[in-house]
Amino acid sequence: MEVQEQLRTPQVDVRATAQLAQAYARSLGVHAARALGTESNPSLKWISPRGVWLSLAVAPERKLSEAEESELEALLTEGAGRPAPTRIVTAEQSTPWDHESAAIISRTTNGGVDESHLAVAPDPDGEYRSTLNAAFDVFRKAWPEGAVEFSTLIRSVIVLRDTELTASHDQLFGTVFSGAAYITSVPLAYELLLHECGHHSMFLRVWRNDLVENPGTLVSHPLRHDPRPISGTLHAAYSLWRMWYGMSRWCDRPDLNPPPEAFEIRDRDFQRLHQTLETLRDNAVWTPEGKRLFDNLSAGVLT
User: Fold this and answer.
1) Residue 158 domain flag
2) What is d(CA 282, CA 69) in angstroms, rounded to the nearest whole number?
3) Which domain covers residue 290, as residue numbers?
4) Are 14 and 25 in contact (CB under 8 A)?
5) Alpha-carbon distance 148 to 269, whole Å?
6) Which residues have C-beta within 8 Å of that of residue 256, sequence separation ≥ 6?
7) What is the phi/psi pair of residue 143, to 5°?
8) How do residues 8-54 score in pLDDT, each as one tens digit?
9) 44, 60, 207, 298: most buried, per Cβ within 10 A?
10) Phi/psi class of residue 126: alpha, beta or left (left: φ > 0; alpha: ψ in -120 to 50)?
11) Mode of pairing for the β-strands spanning 175-179 and 156-160
12) Residue 100: inside a domain
């Protein structure tokens, strides 16, 4: 599959995804080089979430400190090699940057003021880690291409205590946040991985592509009942498609022993996807590229 065709479908082509991710990293590398006053690195393959944050969020607001410049230079050097394996982050294995990331997402989801609303969860018995690893195993077996995409795009899964929130942030690209409430069963954890990888995949699709002509039009959809922009509703539809499709792949594999909860989640996500696509059909004004993506999302869902 060509890269341009990958942008028009929610399906995963491993080679096209890798090319798209590398092009995105190099684009981020231009921002980083500008912040450092250096030439961008044409061999850059990936940038850690910390590097993304320094390049996209910090540098446009102020000059980086000497320590931050040194750190960013090291991260760019690291990004010329193989991507780091995906980390499962709980309090026992956390770094200062993990806690800063939780504070950032807390500000983002709590009106921009409260950095303590969300915090990295402890996992003294290893239950969250065990459940997420089991969900990764399902992912690899049920939808191998999707699992490769996850490993390509996601560097950290940070478990948050005392919340049902799940989140991704374009300025923290590569980090998935999950409330501990979503890691109480393997089907829920698998749905979480599908959901947030879907958002990262969609970040790549809107990076250089305008998909709707009316992105600010406000509508409601099943994932967010408060009015949200059409652009965010398209993000939700894309992630819901990934959730439904990935769960269907598991449910269609009796050899993988999908439990009743997996079928319940699949059916629920299909209904939510259908409703969200109806909202988009009735309200979105599409660009040509956006219409192609919408048609592919709708195939087999809207009649």
Assistant:
1) no
2) 48
3) 210-303
4) no
5) 22
6) 138, 141, 142, 250
7) -140, 75
8) 899 999 999 999 999 999 999 999 999 999 988 888 999 999 999 99
9) 44
10) left
11) parallel
12) no
Secondary structure (DSSP) of 243-275: HHHHHHHHHT-GGG---HHHHHHHHHHHHHHHH
Question: According to the model, what pLDDT value does residue 221 have?
Answer: 74
Amino acid at residue number 148: V
Calpha distance 268→195 (Å, rounded): 14
Cβ density class 149-176: b for 16+ within 10 Å, e for less:
bbbbbbbbbbbbbebebbbbbeebbbbb
Residues ≥6 apart with Cβ < 8 Å to 96: none
Q: Is residue 216 part of a domain?
A: yes
- The structure tokens listed for 3 are 């890269």
- Retrieve residue 40's tokens: 């961008």
Per the DSSP assignment, residues forming a β-bridge with 156 are 87, 175
Structural domain contains residue 272: yes
- State the DSSP code for 169: -
Please give the sequence-ordered ranges of beta strands (E in DSSP) within the chain, or none if there are none.
Answer: 87-89, 156-160, 166-167, 175-179, 218-221, 224-229
What is the token pair recorded at 2? 């060509």
State how far the Cα of 296 lies from the Cα of 155, in Å rounded to an integer.
28
Q: How many helices and strands in the chain, by DSSP H and E?
A: 11, 6
Mean pLDDT, consecutive 10-residue stretches, the chain (303 aa), reads 82 93 93 91 91 95 95 94 94 96 86 67 96 98 98 97 91 96 96 97 90 92 79 94 98 98 98 95 95 95 84
Q: Are the C-beta atoms of 14 and 149 separated by less than 8 Å? A: yes
Strands 156-160 and 224-229: unpaired
Q: For the packed helices 186-206 and 14-36, what is the interaxial angle rounded to 10 degrees?
A: 60
Q: Tell me how many domains the chain contains.
A: 1
Are 128 and 180 contacting, i.e. CB atoms less than 8 angstroms apart? yes
Contact assessment for residue 270 and residue 244, using Cβ atoms and an 8 Å cutoff = yes
